[in-house]
Amino acid sequence: MNQAAFEKDAKPPRRRELPGLLPRLALALVPPLSLGVLGFVPSLMLALRRGTRADWLAALLFTALSVGWWFQIALTPEETHGLAYRLDLLLLTGSTVAAAAHCLLAGRRPAPETTAPETGTPAVTAPETATPKAAAPESAA
Predict the structure, then answer these.
(1) What span, in angstroms and rounded, lies between the C-alpha atoms of 51 and 114?
(2) Global pTM value
(3) Helices 83-93/53-75 angle, 10° precision
(4) Directed axis angle between helix 41-50 and helix 21-28, to 10°?
(5) Contact at 8 Å (CB) between 103 and 27?
(6) 116 and 10 Cβ atoms separated by less than 8 Å
């Protein structure tokens, strides 16, 4: 078969690089502008973009922080003091400042290179041409 027929059906390799600094800066502004409510969005976007295990774990962490802060807002009274106040402050800081910093600093380390996902079609290689091999001189014993 023709090599072009297999290439047409093959899926392109997954993009592993992150967007430039300006799009990441805009993405990092989402948590502070939403006051931490959307703190999981930058890490989720990075995980969807690169798909590494560390990116998915960071997305899970920031989603858990955001959901925990949502519950903290819903369940604590407005005049909170002591431990409940400190927990609220910790969750708010984690879902805003830490999420924005993660978005900006995640691009500093390059993602590991990966190959294209397997398509299930057999690989087609060019036929080998018959080339004469140079005979190695036999040593007389």
Answers:
(1) 11
(2) 0.59
(3) 140
(4) 140
(5) yes
(6) yes
